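Progress against Task 2.4 (sequence-to-structure conversion) is shown through the following example record, which the project officer requested during the mid-term review.
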Amino acid sequence: MKRITTFVICILLLLPLFISCAAENEQTGSAVPETTAPEETSDPEYTPDLPQLRFDGETFTFLVHNFPCFAHLYDVETEEDSSDIVMSSVFRRNAAIFDKYGVKIAAVRDDSAPMIAKNAFKANDDTYNAMWLKVDDFFSLSIEGAFYDYGEVPYVDTSKKYWDQGVVNDFTYGGKLYGLMGDISTSIAIYTHLLVVDTTLANKLDVSLPGLYDTVRAGDWTFDRFYSLLRSCNAYNDNNGNSIRDGVDTYALAVPPDMMWSFTVAAGEKWVVKDGSDYYTVATLTERLQNVVNDIIDLGNDKFITVATWNVGKVPGVSDADTYGYTIQTKFYNSTALFTDADIAAVLEARANKDTDFGILPEPKYDKSQDRYSTYAYPFYPLLSVPVSVKGDKLSMTGFIIEALAAESYRTLTPAFYDRALSSKYVRDEHSYEMLNIILNSRIYDPIYFYGWAGGAFRDSLVNMLTSNKKTLSSYYAKGSKTLNKALLKVYDKFVER
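Structure tokens generated for the chain above:
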């Protein structure tokens, strides 16, 4: 699937959103958890339980999957301070680790990191203390036995809140956890999905007031409410006056094929779940799951409100190869889409290409039965693993420094990321931290999206249903789920054999 891969290193301002229709002025439902900006804290859940040790003269070396995981922001290691607030925080974080523990942080960045990791595993090479590998490559090697279960890594406490608890929960397999993510890196945040909203178009449509913020806070931001808003705000405009709904016109929503995945996750649904023994199995096709998929297909193919990468048609001056970027970027930049389904990476260039304000919202729950918002991360992000070749004192130092880096990142890197994301030529508003917190702290992870198995064919079939506007999930599921489950059983067999 074509992805937008050219981004600037700066993180965008995620702007104030004052949007609602009259129907959005209600404030009902259960409240979402209170969220605040990262800050200094003495909370023991954010404080590492580390003894006072020094490792003077030691170097901690990361192997870093250069592309695509860290294509947008190198937040592992930098040799000098920077005027960029995020890179400066990386420098200060690593300097703090050196001052406290006498350890220098180094990184080897390589596009071929997965192969380097595989060769190091075969050769029992302990050159690298830890590895940042793209999630699918990480998963393949973890099944081969290349990495430690974090329960065997000294000093790492995965219950601490500077570790992403969604990762801890969803990546634990048979009681074992081989990869981590959290405040230690912003890379997963880059690929986190959200809705961006053009405030210029919102104001033009008289879609104003902070009603949607209130709806999110109340826990009432649901698929039906979102769909109703899109239809009632009358965003469509025949910009070229040809009486044909084409890619030049203005729409309420612009979407990529990824919406099948992002909206399914937003509904709190998974295709691969845990069984009673903590191993993966195919989810049961419930009536709710089938309704979720059918409603996503309806939304993506509703030509009254939606322009999609697969139905944008011929756009003057835009080649067929460039229609993806046109639909997701250009229509957002030129204020011809009110909402755009995107991830943070996909809007990084807006700072250079868009002159008007925009805001953010989490993607909607499916219904109010969900107790929380759920967020999808496109599987270009890395996970942090410790090679089994690292042993003895080096293993102890490795676990110690990983934990220290994660805790220090919570105090330095995460606040810098938020500040860069929310401060720019536009004015920060009081709601931005809250919305961003909800989005970044609501991720759930389904293995169907990051591992091949027969899952690739399964994922593709879901997208094909969307782009062909065919509600064939129930007929496909019987065969597709059996194929997927056989692949999952092979993973289980390989796992337990070792």
